[in-house]
Each structure stands twice: as structure tokens, then as C-alpha cells.
Amino acid sequence: MKNLKLTGKILIVLLVIQAIFELLIGMNVLFSFQNALENIFEITYSSELDILGIIIGGYLLLLTTLLFLSIIWILKGKQAGTTIAIIVGAIFVLFGILSYCKLGQIDGLIGDSIRGLLTIFLAYVTGKELKKDKTIQ
């Protein structure tokens, strides 16, 4: 991490926060789906929705894995880590836009899209820095 410039360090911190956030929600959804539905998403629970708990929880754990992989690779100086961060950022932006279009709620658009755009920007700049560092060596 000492080789990373400020944007890279900010990106790592952002990715760690997002990974922990996704992990906690994913575990909550997988192991306490009724609680997650009613308290986090404010949706009335029905046992018919249990399959969605497995799907959503699995998706969030996959996202967590991608975020941690991105962190590890960026810390090792691999540009592929920034590519993964850009892809995850794009997923956040897409989720925010789709949730706004489908539900008309602005909180997903603001929260997810802003953190997605910030992730994309920081990952792009960090990727350029990593590429420049490799050409210098």
C-alpha cells in the first residue's frame, strides 16, 4: 500500500468499507432473511420469498469476494484489481439506476450510483498510476 498514491489508498479504503458492508448484509440475508426483509428492506416477509434470500445473499457474497479480490490485486500492483473495481462500480451504478427506474425511489440512485461512480473514478485513476509505474520499472 505504500507504493500507492493517494487515490489508490482512498480506493482501497472505499473497497474495504464496501466489502464489509456487502458481507454483513449478505450474511444477514442468508441467515436471517425474514429479519433482513423487514428491517433493512421494509418488505413484509412471506415464506414464498425464501428462495430470493438465497439468491440475494449469494449475489452479495459474490460481490464481497470480487471486492476483496480487487483489494488484494491492487495491493500487489496488479492492474486487474482496478478492472474488477470498475466492473463492481458499474454494477452499483446500474443497480442504482434500475432501482430508481423500477421503484421510483431516489435513495438507491443516490447511494449506490454515487459510490459506484466514485469507485469507477478512483479505480480508473489508480489503474493509470499502476500502468505508469510498470512502464517506469
Describe this structure in words.
This protein has 137 residues and is an all-alpha fold. Helix content is 84%, strand content 0%. The protein has 5 helices and no strands. The protein has helices spanning 6-31, 33-40, 50-75, 80-103, 106-136. It is elongated, with a radius of gyration of 17 Å.
Low-confidence stretches: none
Largest sheet data: none
What's the alpha carbon Rg, rounded to whole Å?
17 Å
Spell the H/E element sequence. Answer: HHHHH
Overall geometry comes to: elongated
Instruction: Work out the number of β strands.
Output: 0
Proportion of helical residues: over 70%
Which structural class do you get from the secondary structure elements? mainly alpha
Strand content: under 5%
Distance N to C terminus: 17 Å
